[in-house]
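Minutes, structural biology subgroup

Action item carried over from last meeting: produce the structure token record for Transposase zinc-binding domain-containing protein (Massilimicrobiota timonensis). EB confirmed the sequence was re-checked against the source entry. Recorded below for completeness.
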Amino acid sequence: MIDLSTPGTLLYDSAVLSSYIRKNTKESFGYIFFDNIDYITKLYNDNRMRDVTYKNILDTILCGSVYLGFDTYECPDCGFETTIPHTCKSRFCSKCAAKSAKQRSISISAMTFSCKHRHIVFTVAQELRDYFIRDRSLLDLLFIASRNTISALANDAKFRKNKRLEKHRKLRKSSSPYLYKDTKDNVVFGAILLNAKLNKKKNKENSQNKRKSLIKVNE
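Output recorded by EB:
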């Protein structure tokens, strides 16, 4: 069995996989990685490639093979066995990435309202990309900043109102890096300021009904 944990083993034992991987399908990233595995392994041995990147490339090459694990099903009547190999579930893989993207789009579509939406993409400026390459933990801060930017735009009116209220009462402060996390009926990703409007309308109707009932009692 091929030991993928040892660098370079795949180079010499790739003949075992070539007959299995080479199927009558269109070219994919797995084929490209397989044809350039010598160059990829050289980059990895020279410490010019991260461990997680090298592992994803190997998993993409072996996607759908028994080397990533498999499940065996046996018929209790006739004893016929069927072996289903595991997929790599990597974003590098054309098949697995497409399946994951479809599942994600279906999940997001189920949460959104039937109305027009705007798609916003945040990118890293070319002058700052070297910093993110050296320290990938900065990507977490990038997502926080992107989220806070959208929340600030959507909750700008509420933010100004809270600023005015600070003069009269002390607002609850949070240690979270996310803005508007603890505010009521705030607008966040995938949400629309609909509940706040409905609650405001409902509270107004309740107050009017209370006033009417008080007037009737007084009469």
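Discussion: The chain has two domains: 9-110, 115-192.
Next step: EB to file the record with the rest of the batch.
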